[in-house]
Every structure is written in C-alpha cells, then in structure tokens.
Prior knowledge:
It is a single chain. This protein is mostly beta strands. 0% of the residues lie in helices and 49% in strands. The chain has no helices and 13 strands. Strands 2, 4, 5, 6, 9, 12 and 13 form a seven-stranded mixed β-sheet that branches. It has a four-stranded antiparallel β-sheet with strand order 1-3-8-7, with no helix packed on it. The N and C termini lie far apart (39 Å).
Amino acid sequence: QLQLVESGGGLVQPGGSLRLSCAASGFTLDYYAIGWFRQAPGKERVGVSCISSSGGSTNYADSVKGRFTISRDNAKNAVYLQMNSLKPEDTAVYYCAAGRYITTVQGMCNMLGLEYDYWGQGTQVTVSS
C-alpha cells in the first residue's frame, strides 16, 4: 500500500521552530518531487514548498521564504520541512504530497496540488502564545 505519513507537528510559541517529516512506505520517493501544502481553518489548501526528485531544485511560497527549508534524504525515503521563526499565521494542517511528473516554473518545481499523486493525512501545526 502506497502511503505518506507526516509527523512533527505540534504547538509552538511564536518565534519557535518545528521540523516536519514525511515518510513514505510502499514506494520509493527517489523519482518523485515532494511538496508541502497547508490548509488553515476556513481557507483553501496552498503550497508551501517543494523539492525536485534529485533535491537539486526547491521552491517556496513568498510567505515562508527565509524561514522554512525543505530537504530530502532518499536513503531514508523521507522529506523534511524545517520551520523557523514561526508566526501565528503559519497555523494550519500541513500535508506532504508526492508527484511523479511535476511541471516546473523557471526550473523550479511547482506547487500546484493537482499535479501531485499521493497525499498524506496531515499534521497539525499551531503557533500560539
């Protein structure tokens, strides 16, 4: 069974950090671009970051640039999202997704959810004092 599982979410104070993990089972992530998306209550799901299958290309939403870092370890079949300087507006359910054929924009993977094939169940991130 092909599965993605996110972990690492939780409650953190503004300015704090969290590291999300996305682990795959049933398939290898080597050939997949991975995206992180988030959905806040009452809002649409939006792309946060993505990384190419090789890890050589990354992309970030403007709202998280300079604060979030995406990385992958294909040997561990996992992708990570390091989130620093968290803000209350980062509060959301975070999802990872894998896409085999992701189009690129100026050489960077896109964060269009429709192009991603497999999705995890999500992990809650709450930033509050």
